[in-house]
Specification:
Blueprint lengths: L1 H16 L3 H10 L3 E4 L3 E4 L18 E6 L5 E5 L2 E5 L4 E4 L12 E6 L5 E5 L4 E5 L2 E5 L10 E6 L5 E5 L3
Antiparallel strand pairs: 1-2, 3-4, 4-5, 5-6, 7-8, 8-9, 9-10, 11-12
């Protein structure tokens, strides 16, 4: 009713002033409430939440990075490897797919404009997955150490890699 609309407006104003509008909207949406926007339209927002564990295909319960490639797959980097998620199940990529993937601890993932998936690790440098082919990059090719902490792409397409060595 009207009291719910007033309450929602007050909550949004309070959270917005404190820079927490995103959190507030997320919590309100997850609650499944129905509210009016501009007094004209009803919106019913409902979400289903599902969790996955290691016994359902996830290599490890500690997820360090997530990225989505243009083909729609979600890629999940964990302490014990890389997994691809199709919306229903996880497929673990391991050393059978590429020697690079043997016992890696994924610390960063990035999808670049050309659709490549870049994989930063805590112990094996960086790899790029492009068109189903892995290319592995090591310190001898200019990486700033084996521990890769972040990956980013500039507006002009330059890849920056941050690691324990700079």
């Amino acid at each position: 009713g009207a009291e719910r609309i007033v309450f929602m407006k007050l909550m949004v104003q309070w959270f917005n002033r404190r820079g927490r509008l995103f959190v507030a909207c997320g919590l309100l949406c997850l609650s499944g409430w129905t509210w009016r926007v501009a007094g004209a339209t009803n919106f019913a927002i409902r979400y289903n939440v599902r969790g996955w564990q290691t016994d359902e295909g996830l290599p490890h319960n500690s997820v360090n990075a997530v990225a989505q490639t243009p083909d729609g797959y979600l890629w999940v980097g964990t302490r014990e490897g890389l997994a691809r998620f199709d919306g229903v199940r996880f497929t673990v990529l391991d050393e059978k797919v590429s020697p690079f993937l043997k016992q890696i601890w994924v610390s960063a993932l990035l999808v670049t404009r050309d659709g490549s998936l870049w994989i930063g690790t805590e112990n094996s440098g960086v790899a790029r997955l492009k068109d189903g082919v892995f290319t592995h990059f090591l310190n001898s090719q200019g990486l700033p150490g084996k521990l890769i902490q972040c990956l980013t792409e500039t507006r002009d397409g330059v890849l920056w890699v941050g690691g324990d060595g700079g």
